[in-house]
Write a structure and sequence with these properties.
Layout (H helix, E strand, L loop, with lengths): L1 H20 L8 H5 L7 H13 L9 H16 L4 H15 L4 H14 L2 H12 L1 H42 L5
C-alpha cells in the first residue's frame, strides 16, 4: 500500500510540475478560458505565430484530430459493437474530412498571445528567441524540465518514505505498530 501511495505522490508531483511548465494557454484555467481576448494587430499576431513556431507549440496539438476521432469512435463502439467495421471505416472518412482543423488551435493560441502581450513585447520575444541565448533556451528547456521532473519524482519517493517513517515512529511512541 505504501508503494502505491508513494507512486501516486510522485506522479502527482510530476503532473504538477508538467502542468506548470506548459504555456499558460495550454492549462485548463477557468479564468483563462472565460476572459475576453483583446483585438490585436496583424503584426502582433504574426509575431505570436513566429514565437509559437519557434517554441514548437504545434506539437501540443499535432494529433488532436486523429485522437478526437478515435475517442468518438471508441465511445460509439461501446454501445454499437455490431457496427465496428462500419465505424472503423467512417472514422477514416471523418478524419480526412476534418484534416487541417487543428490549425484553428494554433490561430487561437496566436490570438491569445497577441492579447496577453503588446506588439513591441512580442517583437522583443521573437528577437530574443532568435538570439543565441534564446536558441539555447529553446533547445535546452525541454531537457531541463524533464530532468527537473525526474528529480521531483525521486525526491517525492524519498520524502514520502521519510514521512512514512515519521508516522510509524510517532505511532510506535503511542504503542501502536502500523
Amino acid at each position: 500500500m505504501t508503494i502505491r501511495s508513494n507512486l501516486l505522490l510522485a506522479a502527482g508531483l510530476a503532473f504538477g510540475v508538467a502542468i506548470s511548465a506548459l504555456p499558460a494557454t495550454a492549462q485548463q484555467n477557468p479564468q483563462a478560458q472565460s476572459r475576453p481576448i483583446k483585438p490585436a494587430s496583424p503584426a502582433a499576431i504574426g509575431y505570436a505565430k513566429e514565437i509559437l513556431a519557434m517554441k514548437n507549440a504545434s506539437a501540443m496539438y499535432a494529433n488532436a484530430i486523429p485522437n478526437m476521432v478515435g475517442r468518438v469512435k471508441d465511445s460509439l463502439l461501446q454501445s454499437n459493437l455490431n457496427y465496428q467495421k462500419d465505424l472503423n471505416e467512417v472514422a477514416l472518412i471523418v478524419a480526412q474530412a476534418m484534416a487541417g482543423r487543428d490549425k484553428e488551435i494554433g490561430e487561437q493560441m496566436a490570438r491569445i498571445y497577441a492579447s496577453d502581450f503588446t506588439e513591441p513585447e512580442l517583437k522583443d520575444l521573437a528577437t530574443f528567441y532568435k538570439s543565441p541565448l534564446g536558441q539555447k533556451l529553446l533547445a535546452q528547456e525541454p531537457q531541463s524540465i524533464s530532468a527537473s521532473m525526474n528529480y521531483m519524482q525521486q525526491w517525492a519517493q524519498s520524502f514520502s518514505e521519510e514521512v512514512n517513517g515519521q508516522f510509524r515512529a510517532e505511532m510506535r511512541k503511542r504503542g501502536k505498530e502500523i
